[in-house]
Amino acid sequence: MKLQKDFNQYPIIGSKIEELYWYPAGDSIWIKGKCDKTEDISNKKCYFYNLYFLHMKNSNIINQEKKNYQDAKIVGVDIREVDSGFDICLTIDYRDDNIETLECRQTMQFWCDDIRYDVLKYRGMSYENIYMNPQYQAFFTKNQQAYGKDECFLETDSKDLVNGYLVQWDSYGECRRAQNGVLCKHTFIQRCRLLYKQTILFEYDSIYDMAHVSSIIKHQNGKSYFLFKTDLYGLNVYDMQSKEVFYYMPEGY
User: Fold this and answer.
1) CB-based contacts of 141, cutoff 8 Å, min separation 6
2) Of 148, 161, 234, 241, whose Cβ has the fewest other Cβ atoms within 10 Å?
């Protein structure tokens, strides 16, 4: 299983949890942490991860009071692949908020239909632009191909800018009803367009939910620029006079 290979290369056992986030529907968790034994002081390298358990069922933790897992550690994880998903047993050591010196252990057992493990590389304060990097472009294209199709359409929305300009976007992703009945939308791709009086001036794609982070500025050089995002990190600039576009994605996305 590729997931196990990733765990072996970037160890998760003993890793420090920086944040454990519950999705609004309450049936998925997102763990942000730092891989154990990956720091290289001489090269200023370290690796961080995002670990997602999506669409959980039969869990012993969904309806429990959520604990503070900051600075907790993952001390055990058992993942068993079954026909329709994964059986998970996750063990975490954490500090009790009420008794500062007491270290507690919690074992989470649940089934989920999807697991994602993304490893992120940082090189100190690297500002290298990797937008055209083949690895990043492959990652971007994978999201476009997987979700940018009619059956994944969620909704259309827009944002008013200055002087009659408008950003409009179509969101694509997944829409599921959680065990508690809440309808939860997960956006993975947005087809975006800059318009002026219903005329399309510029089109671009954004992964995740970034289309609303956009604006038009007037520079002291006399030009107007459209600032927009195509990912969580980075910033892009569209020259509204020359029609040139500059994409910037810093290393460590």
Assistant:
1) none
2) 241
